[in-house]
Design goal:
Radius of gyration: 26 Å
Helix content: 55-70%
Keywords: Membrane, Transmembrane, Transmembrane helix
Number of helices: 1
Order of helices and strands: H
Structural class: mainly alpha
Largest sheet: none
Distance between the termini: 82 Å
Strand content: under 5%
């Protein structure tokens, strides 16, 4: 009886740990995706004030 209870608690703990890691991973990925989307999709807050010309060094 005691051994079965400890086995059940161990399995439940492992499942809970896996779910916690999965939740953290999904939350982190969603946060990174939202940040990247905002970074590339939104307009600039400060408009360009001058034209920049690129030239190769000779």
């Amino acid at each position: 009886m005691n051994k079965a209870l400890f086995t059940f608690i161990k399995i439940a703990f492992v499942i809970m740990l896996i779910l916690l890691i999965l939740y953290g991973t999904v939350h982190l990925c969603r946060t990174c995706y939202d940040y990247g989307y905002r970074f590339f999709a939104e307009k600039q807050m400060v408009p360009d004030t001058q034209d920049v010309e690129s030239t190769e060094a000779q």
